[in-house]
């Protein structure tokens, strides 16, 4: 398939998706760069189309040969007007994510990471990478979080999101209800908590919720959770991604997975 006009409805749908950080009109998510295209090939996500320029079609020929997807060729100048990165490698994919389920995201003996109002794509991406690195079972993005279709977020995850169950745009009341049903404890990261990290039992089935740096964990969840703080020296609080990574490392240590 070849596209030459930037006025094509398909082209416009992709541009809107990249600009807004939302799925396309058909519900597909745009991923940019050969790394994410390669990562998605080894996941439950379905790669449906790959957009390339004539030059990058040759350059990424080996990768494209492994993709059971339609190849869409567009002129280099048109591709440049689409790309969400300053230095485009002239390859992007349209992918269909798998559906999420509570049973996958709140496993009985596992540990789940909950993002509460985190809108910064870099922080959210760091949390997703650390969640995979330290053995978390799943990710839950509550209402008000960055959308998973956000290009900066997807690049920050470096492919980790493709390999983990997740739920998006989840209501806090639904989280509370399902945590009760799964008999999982909720820990909330907050600098004012009485319980220091090294005194918390993270071996039990639990979820860890981390809030935005501006607002922290929502009062609705704080009332339901056990507060957890990371002792620091001369620094009042940590970056949300860093704080969550520290807690996940401690959870892995306690569970004997290091």
Query: What's the CATH C level of the largest domain?
Result: Alpha Beta
CATH fold label of the largest domain: Alpha/beta knot
Total strand count, please?
Answer: 10
CATH superfamily of the largest domain: SPOUT methyltransferase, trefoil knot domain
- What is the SS-derived class? alpha/beta
Q: Which strand-content bin applies to the residues?
A: 15-25%
- Helix percent band: 25-40%
Radius of gyration: 20 Å
Order of helices and strands: HEHEHHEHEHEHEHEHEEHEH
What would the average pLDDT be, to the nearest integer? 90
CATH architecture of the largest domain: 3-Layer(aba) Sandwich
Short description:
This protein is of the alpha/beta class and 258 residues long. It contains eleven helices and ten strands.
Structure description:
The structure is a single chain. With 258 residues, the protein is α/β, with parallel strands linked by helices. The strands form 2 sheets. Strands 7-6-5-9-8-10 form a 6-stranded parallel beta sheet, sandwiched between helices. A 4-stranded mixed beta sheet has the order 1-4-2-3, with helices on both faces. The protein has 2 domains: 9-96, 60s Ribosomal Protein L30, Chain: A, CATH 3.30.1330.30; 102-254, Alpha/beta knot (3-Layer(aba) Sandwich), CATH 3.40.1280. Helix content is 35%, strand content 20%. The chain has helices at residues 9-20, 34-40, 54-59, 61-65, 76-82, 102-105, 121-133, 151-157, 172-182, 219-222, 240-254, and strands spanning 29-32, 46-52, 70-73, 91-96, 111-116, 138-142, 166-170, 185-189, 206-211, 226-228. The termini are far apart.
